[in-house]
Amino acid sequence: MDNSIIELRHLRTLLALEETGSVSLAAERVFLTQSALSHQIRVLETYFGTPLFERKSTPIRFTPAGERLLKLGRELLPRVAHAERDLMQIVQGEAGELRLAVECHTCFDWLMPAMGVFRPQWQQVELDIVSGFQADPVGLLLTNRADLAIVSEDTPQAGIVYQPLFSYEMVGICAPDHPLAQKLVWQPEDFIHETLITYPVPDDMLDLLRKVLFPKNIHPTRRNSELTIAIVQLVASRRGIATLPHWAVMPYVEKNYVVERKITEHSLQSKLYAAMREEDKDLAYLNDFCEIIRSESFANLSGLSVLK
């Protein structure tokens, strides 16, 4: 038997299928077309002479053979990642500094868990967050006051490179007894006579305004709050409506404090990138931190899409 038939990419594909429950989403996750992913699976199934999952099940249900390969993936891939990390530390050294600058308030929902995973793996790297909300985190990179910035746009800038993290859906929220709760999809015109509750950030950093409302010349009444929970509380008490990431509002939707609604038929998608100085783009711990952000976020947050 050819022992090389099972490759790491096959195991990553199967784990992506398990995590997403969908061939299309799994293909996105591992940066393949659906046909290429299906070909990978067929190669394994042909070789072993057995299906790995039930084709018409939703979500995907794995056969005993598929479950055995999943078990292998769960055991082997973390060990490979650990070995790769050790090798990077041997080559580049274990010590370093990673000062994070963040421009979005809701980033902390996923950033803190990612930092928790990173710290024990890179114990000699000094990890810290630049205090306060940053309106120009890339500027902090250029003046050497930060080493990695989490930003919503990959605007070309000399000396700066970007790594895509993920895209996510922004949803509208209102009180359950608000008139807009009767609409499943909100259009730009629905915001005209409403009070919009937002974070206290520049208008060009709010995708709802920049992508949906301002192109229609719609400028609703505004109210600001710095905390996500405070925004939700104001919305629940009918002081206004808001737009927040799907993952951020899910706990409050499940408790029926607020309801969430899609914004336009195509949905409102926002993006996140990691920005770093070009001279630092090959630092192992910076790249590893970006990969940890992606893997932890996709594993624990709903409503994410692969950002290429």
Automatic annotation (TrEMBL):
A molecular function (GO) term: transcription cis-regulatory region binding
Chief location of this protein within or outside the cell: cytoplasm
Keyword annotations of the record: Activator, Amino-acid biosynthesis, Cytoplasm, DNA-binding, Methionine biosynthesis, Repressor, Transcription, Transcription regulation
Gene Ontology terms describing biological process: methionine biosynthetic process
Keyword match Magnesium: no
Domain HTH lysR-type: 6-63
Gene Ontology cellular component terms for the protein in this record: cytoplasm
UniProt keyword annotation of DNA-binding present: yes
Signal peptide: none
Superkingdom: Bacteria
Subcellular localization(s) per the UniProt record: Cytoplasm
Family recorded in the similarity comment: Belongs to the LysR transcriptional regulatory family.
Protein name: HTH-type transcriptional regulator MetR
Organism: Kingella negevensis
Source taxonomy: Bacteria, Pseudomonadati, Pseudomonadota, Betaproteobacteria, Neisseriales
Gene for this chain: cynR
